[in-house]
């Protein structure tokens, strides 16, 4: 399955080449008295890949979790695909939040597979239980996707029987099986042994080439340079600067970005 199978909005004649799929304006989030996201603005075009980089604790994961409705933002708006728009300045209604959650799927740093379910059960759970799709159709799709990532023969295995790289590929398949418009990756390779990182990054790169729209939190700067269409540097709950990956990573305009990149080199 590719994202081109999904319904798209009709583009007006004078639309820019890339229609925004995701638009975030003024997103704010506090935990207790601690302001974690100040006023986040983001736009991601259809088929584009945004990489979020920045120091630990700067708010990157919280941005992803707000996009997916796993955290409720305190203010701002999130619009996905034109049809789903949630204004967190007013109390969002349940229907809006469900629509927001339906549009994206998250791939977690620690895979977050159900330990007591098989690989196949992990993949079909969301499509059947959350989306109400028929079991036979969900199973057929799951097997096609597992085959694609070389894990069809592991369909009956439990997560503990798989390597970290295999578990993360199941995590990615589980996200794809939800047929989201937007894929969210939270440091997808941070928990992997170095020799397993390449396989997972290659798979994500293939998805980018196929035209999936993605937001990826990553410390893999070389990967971000190669795969992302845009990089945003997050620090202290704000987007300090964003732009073309090659430009920003080689020649940032902000001193904070420069210092961060310098520490990583
Ligand atoms: P990053 O992904 O950039 O490492 P996070 O978004 O995980 O940053 O965290 C940003 C800040 O929010 C950190 O100070 C973190 O401790 C805090 N934080 C994140 N989640 C929670 C939570 N559920 N409760 C309280 N504080 C949180």
UniProtKB/TrEMBL annotation:
Keywords: ATP-binding, Cell membrane, Membrane, Nucleotide-binding, Transport. GO terms for cellular component: plasma membrane. The keyword Membrane applies. SMART domains: AAA. One of its GO terms (molecular function) is ABC-type amino acid transporter activity. Gene3D superfamilies: P-loop containing nucleotide triphosphate hydrolases. Residues 22-261 form the ABC transporter domain. It is a peripheral membrane protein. InterPro entries: AAA+_ATPase, ABC_ATPase_HisP-typ, ABC_transporter-like_ATP-bd, ABC_transporter-like_CS, MetN_ABC_transporter-like, P-loop_NTPase. It is found in: Cell membrane. The keyword Transport applies. This is Amino acid ABC transporter ATP-binding protein.
